[in-house]
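An example makes the point: we let one protein speak, the chain in one-letter code, the fold tokenised, and here it is:
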Amino acid sequence: MKHLVPVQAWLPQEIAEQVKSHCQNHCQPVSEFIRTLVLEACATGLATNRIERHLEWISSDLNFAAVALDALLAGHADPDLRERVHEAFARKEERRRTTLQSVEGAVK
């Protein structure tokens, strides 16, 4: 077994009582319960950091694709194509925002 190092934590009385009560009801040592919570918190934090990094990469790739597409449209033989694409995108974005606002309003 790994060598365990004691770590002291100060909790408000009511939380300490809840922890002790939970541990007694589940026949679990308090240190094991707290250790599990700490491990889960660390694992969740690491997963969140990884997700954020992946979202940054995806966002960067999407920005590159948008810039590249805009450059291709700017050089297209049909001089109005770029403007039509931008207008279509603006309409689609407005519909998306309206839908999101109505969903968020329904949730509140």
